[in-house]
Design a protein that fits this description.
Layout: E1 2-7, H1 11-24, E2 28-33, H2 36-45, E3 50-54, H3 62-72, E4 78-82, H4 87-95, E5 100-103, H5 108-133, H6 146-158, E6 165-168, H7 175-184, E7 193-197, H8 203-211, H9 228-231, E8 236-240, H10 247-259, E9 261-262, E10 271-272, E11 276-281, H11 285-290, H12 296-302, E12 305-308, H13 319-334, E13 340-341, H14 343-351, H15 357-371, E14 375-376, H16 378-384
Parallel strand pairs: 1-2, 1-3, 3-4, 4-5, 6-11, 6-12, 7-8, 8-11, 13-14
Antiparallel strand pairs: 9-10
């Protein structure tokens, strides 16, 4: 059922529009109101697939309705209804985001074609939004525990914004999965997500890696090179293990966050960048700040949104789901039939002390699939999953 709202102060036009649209398709449900103020209230309180709005109305004219409606529900197509003297205004409303305009008295074919096209456009927008919210199979967050459900809720709220996110948690818990979810559910999905493992890059090279360098700026700099921030322009940069970054690099990252400007090593030329920063660490950054190893001002810039990823020991109820997921994935990769885990085997795995978290569990599942019987038993767990 397509919900359509008509905002028109002339009763005769209102009746004609309602009748024509309703009779065209039984799936069209038309609601009509007589002025812009009522229209805005209806838009606030109901979900519509299409709005038809007159331009000249008392209390609130159509241009103001258009501007307010686009702020309230930006995805709804709005078709403006114009009298002969309103054509210039109608054309201007297109610049303000109107889908189209129709003239009074409405031509039947023109009206119905416009309605159909607008509804098709709304359907495409909704579908695109739905697809954007789907995360690729390579980055699935498995679990239904309260802790994981809470993280998923935060991601849904935060992903569409440009708010910086600091992800904390022990090694092997899946902090990079959270980062990928944030990117893939964001409006930056068409731009790259660039990952930087700050712990894996020597301190003397981290600035060049992040910000690039110019030829001759240091030994081995044989040509100009763009850094990760430039590569991520328009998208997301994920600074993993940021607690291991040198203080000098931290100062440059702080400038990039404050001013959206970077400069390559050896150059004084400023480069404007539009990058969303997501960072992760397994360290307690407040302790690092107290020890003088991490900048407090950078911490506050990064930690606009804090997401703490729990250890596997704190979400043992997710172990059966994770085992099933890894079993399917590993079996598909190896081209072997999927093995089953007995209830006793799953219970033993839930009781394990998972110091290596999700990463360790995956390794254990792979070992059991290779070495265990067709059904993985409690005895297989004792033989092949022991530490």
């Amino acid at each position: 059922m397509s919900e359509i709202l008509v905002i028109e102060d002339e009763a005769a036009i209102r009746r004609v529009l309602t009748k024509i649209i309703s009779e065209e398709n039984e799936s069209y449900n038309v609601t009509a109101v007589a002025d812009g103020l009522l229209g805005i209230e209806m838009i606030k309180n109901h979900d519509y697939d299409l709005i038809l709005c007159d331009i000249k109305m008392p209390k609130m004219d159509g241009v103001e309705v258009l501007e307010k409606a686009k702020k309230i529900k930006p995805e709804i197509p709005i078709v403006m209804i114009s009298g002969h003297g309103d054509l210039d205004t109608a054309v201007n409303t297109m610049r303000l985001g109107a889908f189209d305009y129709i003239s009074k008295p409405p031509d039947l074919n023109r009206l119905l074609n416009t309605v159909r096209n607008a509804l098709d456009t709304k359907t495409l927008l909704v579908e695109n939004k739905r697809l954007k919210k789907k995360v690729s199979k390579g980055y699935q967050m498995i679990g239904e525990s309260p802790a994981i459900s809470h993280i998923k809720e935060i991601i849904e709220k935060v992903a569409a914004t440009d708010a910086r996110v600091l992800i904390t948690g022990p090694n092997g818990t899946g902090k990079e999965l959270v980062a990928h979810w944030l990117h893939e559910k964001s409006d930056r999905i068409k731009a790259p997500m660039i990952e930087v493992n700050c712990a894996a890059i020597p301190s003397e090279l981290i600035e060049s890696e992040l910000f690039g360098h110019v030829k001759g700026s240091f030994t081995g700099a044989n040509k100009d090179r763009a850094g990760k921030f430039e590569a991520a322009n328009g998208g997301t940069i994920f600074l993993d293990e940021i607690g291991d970054m040198s203080l000098s690099a931290q100062a440059k990252v702080l400038r990039a966050l404050q001013e959206s400007i970077i400069s390559r090593v050896g150059s004084d030329k400023d480069i404007k960048v539009n990058v969303r920063v997501v960072a992760a660490t397994n360290k307690n950054l407040k302790e690092e700040i107290a020890a003088g190893r991490f900048r407090e001002d950078l911490y506050h810039r990064l930690a606009v949104i804090l997401i703490k990823v729990p250890s596997l020991n704190d979400r043992r109820e997710d172990v059966p789901l994770l085992v099933d997921f890894f079993t399917k994935k590993i079996s598909e990769t190896q081209g072997t039939p999927k093995k089953e885990f007995s209830e006793a085997a799953i219970k033993l795995l839930q009781e394990y002390d998972w110091t290596g978290n999700i990463r360790e569990l995956r390794n254990v599942v792979e070992r059991l699939i290779i070495l265990g019987e067709k059904e993985i038993s409690a005895n297989d767990i004792k033989l092949f999953a022991s530490k």
